[in-house]
Write a structure and sequence with these properties.
Length: about 260
């Protein structure tokens, strides 16, 4: 599975989901690569320190002589590897202007890895530009985190439109793996209403697992750990473990 974690809204839980889903897959013994496609580099910094990040996904995508293998680093967790990002990635769009295969760069670089990883998780930036399109072209699956908030569904039309465009041409095989509700506070009536609304729009695509609001999930990146080693007993660990189970189930049953 190559799964893109995308939603053009910022702060909805993409990075938290990418980091902890990748960690959960690794803990289950799957060799997993986390590709950071956000110039902010939040998922890279969740595991690595800045000084360790010299070459990044920018080099691997923009430079024909650099491969992903050249920039991949082991994360401090067995079976987990990271292709880190740096702010340079923000220049990619202007760098690739006019290149006919601009949307296929990441797909081609992943193809060179030739099955070295069981799973690849791609953390996307909060935009529907060239980087996210590269992820959607390269991916077999898309996972959409939606924040449990009053504005939850705003903008999802644009995302679905982009997915349809990608499916029409470059990647007809792209499947929507599912929608995961994040930062949910099950005590409030509003949160329950929002969940119902999301369910109305996405139906069976919504994962049964809902990620609750948990301060431990906010803290763990500061310690360069996933939630599973940082706070294994926390609700965040239980939720992301259960999301990972559902993800594997859907991929293996090919229901996504
Ligand atoms: N379930 C959660 N509970 C509490 N805080 C969360 C949760 N998920 C994410 N956060 C926090 O919310 C902020 C935005 O999350 P992030 O994963 O970075 O979103 P995105 O990548 O979509 O911008 C971060 O500070 C993160 O630590
Ligand atoms: Mg992010």
């Amino acid at each position: 599975m190559i799964v893109a974690i995308a939603n053009q809204k910022g702060g909805v839980g993409k990075t938290t989901t990418a980091v902890n889903l990748a960690a959960a897959l690794a803990l289950r013994g799957r060799r997993t690569l986390l590709i950071d496609l956000d110039p902010q580099g939040n998922s890279s910094i969740s595991f690595l320190t800045h000084d360790l990040i010299q070459r990044s996904t920018y080099d691997a995508i923009a430079d024909p002589n650099v491969s992903l293998a050249d920039i991949i680093q082991p994360a401090p967790l067995e079976n987990l590897f990271i292709a880190p990002a740096r702010i340079a990635l923000a220049k990619l769009e202007s760098r690739l202007v006019g290149e006919l295969d601009a949307h296929f760069k990441l797909k081609d670089k992943i193809a060179q890895l030739a099955g070295q990883f069981d799973h690849i998780v791609i953390d996307c930036p909060p935009a529907l530009g060239l980087l996210t399109v590269n992820a959607l072209v390269a991916a077999t699956h898309l996972l959409i985190p939606i924040q449990s908030s009053y504005f939850a569904l705003e903008g999802t039309d644009d995302l679905l439109e982009t997915i349809e465009k990608v499916r029409q041409r470059p990647n007809p095989a792209l499947r929507i793996l599912g929608v995961v509700i994040t930062m949910h506070d099950k005590r409030t009536a509003l949160a329950r209403d929002i969940r119902d609304q999301i369910q109305k729009v996405f139906g069976g695509k919504v994962f049964k697992t809902v990620i609750s609001k948990s301060v431990r999930l906010e803290e763990s990146p500061a310690y360069k750990e996933s939630i599973f080693t940082f706070a294994p007993e926390s609700p965040g660990a239980t939720d992301y473990y259960s999301l990972c189970e559902e993800v594997i189930e859907r991929v293996e049953a090919r229901t996504a």
